[in-house]
TrEMBL record:
<protein>
    <recommendedName>
        <fullName>L-serine deaminase</fullName>
    </recommendedName>
</protein>
<keyword id="KW-0456">Lyase</keyword>
<comment type="similarity">
    <text>Belongs to the iron-sulfur dependent L-serine dehydratase family.</text>
</comment>
<comment type="pathway">
    <text>Carbohydrate biosynthesis; gluconeogenesis.</text>
</comment>
<keyword id="KW-0411">Iron-sulfur</keyword>
<dbReference type="GO" id="GO:0003941">
    <property type="term" value="F:L-serine ammonia-lyase activity"/>
</dbReference>
<dbReference type="GO" id="GO:0006094">
    <property type="term" value="P:gluconeogenesis"/>
</dbReference>
<keyword id="KW-0312">Gluconeogenesis</keyword>
<keyword id="KW-0004">4Fe-4S</keyword>
<keyword id="KW-0479">Metal-binding</keyword>
<dbReference type="InterPro" id="IPR051318">
    <property type="entry name" value="Fe-S_L-Ser"/>
</dbReference>
<dbReference type="InterPro" id="IPR005131">
    <property type="entry name" value="Ser_deHydtase_bsu"/>
</dbReference>
<dbReference type="Pfam" id="PF03315">
    <property type="entry name" value="SDH_beta"/>
</dbReference>
<feature type="domain" description="Serine dehydratase beta chain">
    <location>
        <begin position="8"/>
        <end position="118"/>
    </location>
</feature>
<dbReference type="GO" id="GO:0046872">
    <property type="term" value="F:metal ion binding"/>
</dbReference>
<dbReference type="InterPro" id="IPR004643">
    <property type="entry name" value="Fe-S_L-Ser_bsu"/>
</dbReference>
<keyword id="KW-0408">Iron</keyword>
Length: 220
């Protein structure tokens, strides 16, 4: 099957979900889940910035509760999804939604930029829903480092002590995984964050091997 960023017919049909729209609801959950995986800590505040189509339709299409559901780690078919904003607020999380005029900064009509923070940590994830519940992540700010992935998942973030993750790339190569794009940024203490755009998700055993040679690993 040839279909751009769709990997199977199920990506076009869309996932099993709670909500009215695969693009505006299921895709929104997936963008929220990506932010949830990266943040990985107790959350204090979430800010959602909408652009273009999302800015105009987020309330009617359930995008608000869908993104917050993903931020809380819920799946698309979780019956709690429509109550996600209420659940977050009961957990003491401040929730803010902003609508923006003009074009999306990541060049897609279904754009949501999610900022998650607590007293010691802040991240920003810029994602778009491209249809059928499929998403792209086109901009990331993590631990003071700014990355611009190609967009399609999977995207790997890993932390190492050097600027060239030779061992990690070797494990990916043994699993016949191609790296479509890679970048690395240095942090204090000689640590590096690496962002790798992959052609498919690594086998679980390969992920375990990569965890063993890195000080942190997140796979979206």
């Amino acid at each position: 099957m040839s279909g751009g960023n769709y990997k199977s017919v199920f990506d076009i049909i869309g996932p099993v979900m709670v909500g009215p729209s695969s693009s505006h609801t299921a895709g929104a959950v997936a963008i929220g889940q990506a932010a949830h995986k990266i943040f990985g800590e107790k959350l204090k505040k979430v800010t959602i910035d909408y652009y273009e189509s999302f800015a105009k339709t987020h309330q009617g299409h359930g995008t608000d509760y869908a993104i917050i559901a993903g931020v809380l780690g819920m799946e698309t078919d979780d019956l709690r999804v429509p109550r996600a904003v209420e659940i977050a607020q009961k957990q003491g999380i401040e929730v803010i939604f902003n609508e923006h005029e003009g074009t999306s900064p990541i060049n897609h009509p279904n754009t949501a930029i999610i900022t998650l923070e607590n007293d010691t940590k802040k991240i920003k994830v810029s994602g778009c829903s491209i249809g059928g519940g499929t998403i792209e992540i086109r901009d990331l700010e993590v631990e003071g480092c700014h990355f611009t992935p190609l967009g399609p998942l999977p995207i790997m973030l890993c932390w190492t002590g050097g600027n060239d993750p030779v061992d990690i790339k070797a494990h990916l190569s043994h699993d016949n995984i191609q790296i479509r794009k890679e970048s690395a940024l240095s942090q204090a203490g000689g640590r590096y964050i690496h962002e790798l755009d992959l052609d498919r998700m690594p086998h679980p055993k390969v992920l375990d091997q990569i965890k063993a040679v890195s000080s942190g690993l997140i796979c979206l």
